[in-house]
Structures are given as structure tokens and as C-alpha cells.
Amino acid sequence: MRVDIVTIFPEAFTPLEISMIGRARERGLLQITIWDLRDFTTDRHRQVDDAPYGGGAGMVMKPEPFFAAVDAIRAAAGAEPSHVILTSPQGARLTHALAEEMAGTRHLVLLCGHYEGIDERVREGLATDEISIGDYVLTGGELPAMVIVDAVARFVPGVVGDAASVEADSFAQGLLDHSHYTRPPEFRGMKVPEVLLSGNHEAIRRWRRAQRLRRTLERRPDLLKHEALSEEDRRLLDAADLDID
Ligand SMILES: C[S@@+](CC[C@H](N)C(=O)[O-])C[C@H]1O[C@@H](n2cnc3c(N)ncnc32)[C@H](O)[C@@H]1O
Predict the structure, then answer these.
(1) Rounded CA gap, 146 and 14, in Å?
(2) What is the pTM of this model?
(3) Is the pLDDT of residue 134 over 90?
(4) Best mutation site among 88, 98, 146 for ligand 1, i.e. most ligand atoms within 8 A of its Cβ?
(5) Predicted confidence band at 245 (pLDDT cuts at 50, 70, 90)?
(6) Which atom of ligand 1 is nearest to the CA of 86?
């Protein structure tokens, strides 16, 4: 998968050089290029923003450098990107499903805003999608771009070593994850549940499934699709005295 990010702070993207994303880049599973928006300005001061028409507080990012940057990305890729994503608190909320869908595509371009945001003509004439990472406002689009890349990259085959862990994580299959423990078996009076030490794989599977159901019901009942619950799920919920209705 190819990812191109357009920003005025290329130096902000070092987190994409480490850990799983860094390794995926080294292994050629992800090709990430950071483009400096100022390289696409035409004036001596490399100005990327200007005062808002109509007056008011703050500055607005100019449209021309974004259009020129995406033209350069098109030329470098030799094809139209699958998605040109405008990061914005007003966009569609990033979800597990959206990240998984984007991971199935070939080429993402992400545009990072600052100040009051980007001239509306970038949304109208350049972006194919507008994505928000949550209902709050950040100072710039760099963190949202990295959040989007990380969430999408986890679904690219090979990026996460064990694909089974992605399938069992929270939100996959509409459930939250079960709790996790490692050594020691007892720490400051807190014990690891007996069943996990039992070596009984079937009992462990049932315990984990019950935990996932319980946590989802208690913390995020909105995720639980009643029609998707199996007979075993209903028995596990009954046994835990949890009422799904
Ligand atoms: C200060 S914000 C602009 C906010 C804009 N005036 C508004 O109220 O909708 C500057 C930039 O940060 C990024 N940004 C801020 N919050 C975001 C969020 N929740 N999701 C995605 N991007 C965000 C966008 O790139 C945005 O252009």
C-alpha cells in the first residue's frame, strides 16, 4: 500500500518510523512518503496561509499548494490515488470498519490542515473523503494523519505479525477484547484468574468469550448486535447473569 502525507511539519512524522509501522515500511508492505507543503508554494516566503475572506480570527491555508502537491503525488504514483483524505473535525468519524475498508485500497493521500483549517475549495475540488478522529479539535492534522495511517496499516496483511490478534481485538466482530494477563501469577495481592493457568484450552476459550460479551455489554452495549449472538453466547451471558435486553 502506498501512503502520501502532505504537511507543513514533515518532522512530526518520526512515529511512523518505529515499531510495527517502521518495520512494515522496511519490509516494503507500506510505502509512506511525507511531502512538505511549502515545496509547492511559488512565492519567496513560501507562504501557505492567508487572511480569511470576510474577516475574523486566524489564518486559512491556501488551496494552490495542496492542489500542486497532489498533482506531484499523482505524477509520482503514475495513477489516481484511491482516496484523497482531508483531515478535519467535521469529517466522517474514523471507525474500525472505515479503517478496514481503506486498507483494502491501493493508495491513500492525507492532507494536514492548521490554523482555521484549509480553504474550502480543497474539500470541494480535491478531497474524496473528509475524516475526523473524534469530536474534539486539535491544533493540526499531523496527529490525525498518523492515527489514520496506524489504524489502516494494522489491516494490511503482514503488518501485524499475528493476523489472529487483529481479528480478536476490540471492535472486530462487534465486541470488545477480553482482559489479558502475563507473569507473575500473583502481583500485589491480585491473582490471574485460575482458568488461564489451567491449560484447559476449551475452558479458556469459553472464559474469554464470556469476558468479551460481558465487557461489551457493560461498557459499549451499542456495539452488541443481538442477532449476531450465537446460542453459546446466550448461554454464557445467562450463566454470568447478564441480561442483554
Ligand atoms: C484547529 S483545526 C481547524 C478547525 C476548524 N476551524 C473547525 O472548527 O472545524 C486545524 C486542523 O487540524 C486538523 N484537525 C483538528 N481536529 C481534528 C480532528 N478531530 N480530526 C481530524 N483532523 C483534525 C485538521 O487538519 C484541521 O484543518
Answers:
(1) 10
(2) 0.96
(3) yes
(4) 88
(5) low
(6) 25
